[in-house]
Amino acid sequence: MPVISIHDLTKRFPSVTALDQLTVDIGPGVTGFVGANGAGKSTLIKILLGLQPATSGEATVLDLDVATQGPAIRDRVGYMPEHDCLPPDMSATEFVVHMARMSGLPAASARERTADTLRHVGLYEERYRPIGGYSTGMRQRVKLAQALVHDPRLVFLDEPTNGLDPSGRDEMLGLVRRIGTDFQISVLVTSHLLGELERISDQVVIIDGGRLLRASSTAEFTRATQVLAVEVAAFDSGPDWTAARDRLGHALAGHGLRVVPDGRLLMIDIAREETFDVVRDTAAELDLGLVRMEQRRHRIEEIFRDGAPGHQAGADAGAGGPAGGPVSGPDQGGAHRVRTP
Ligand SMILES: Nc1ncnc2c1ncn2[C@@H]1O[C@H](COP(=O)(O)OP(=O)(O)OP(=O)(O)O)[C@@H](O)[C@H]1O
Hints:
By secondary structure, the chain is α/β, with parallel strands linked by helices. The protein folds into two domains: 4-221, P-loop containing nucleotide triphosphate hydrolases (Rossmann fold), CATH 3.40.50; 224-300, 2-Layer Sandwich (Alpha-Beta Plaits). It contains eleven helices and 14 strands. The relative contact order is 0.13. It binds adenosine-5'-triphosphate (ATP). Adenosine-5'-triphosphate binds at residues 13, 16, 18, 35, 37-43, 82, 159.
């Protein structure tokens, strides 16, 4: 049963259509909601919380109607807003207790839940210091704690990694993942960075200009391709990786495999089951060491890079044949911007 159900939802502002006939069902677990800046992510969250009316269309959250049951939704759902909204003179404990009381918790359980939640987000030691002296990462954790303190069934996290450096981002993503796994709270987390959502989400919804581009399980997005990526090192020619790569490439082409170089790698069509053995044996015959041999997986960002939703990016990487030029293989890097603002 979907946790969130959105049907034909449109939101028009005077000068822009923020959501355009959006229809999508979102199941339990961690859902990554991705789109460029201005794609309509925050607008959707506000409509789902009953804080803003839609222009047309319907949506339910935990089976509650967003148009008429906003307060009941906000009782059951936690919300971490994108922008900083923290009082600098209060400590994390004071602020989170206050938010717990606002959600209707009695004083004693508000204090107890606050201590538990701050421990969970890694702020226990610092909980009595004024928020004004906190780093960006700590402030993000306070916002996360206040979203969790009333023990919601579902949380909306709007760009929780905003402003964080790579290690802070990794820690935040780990926390978000644990909310879904350890606490069994469903999560809708937004980002304009595709790579980070791919890592932590059970399903991913991609919007562009307020329209649905694609919604599917992460496993479906990142399923294995029929391309084997191989990197070799030459024992006898030192650091000349180009020569080693090309020797192997030509030998494999001689075995009837379709091979395309891509930087230090060879992209090889997995035409038959023995392909792995042929690569291993040929590298050994040529006295080359196998540094890496892995079946490529689709990356979510390929959907954007290659334009068309559902495009079989990477699956035909070897189609150029042995004589084909270098192809741009699946991305090796980390998170990518969908579109810079
Ligand atoms: N209250 C408003 N009045 C007018 N236009 C608005 C309002 N809120 C949002 N918009 C516009 O709607 C579009 C979608 O904005 P929204 O904030 O939902 O995008 P987003 O995907 O969350 O991006 P960001 O992360 O940059 O906030 C943008 O063009 C924005 O300028």
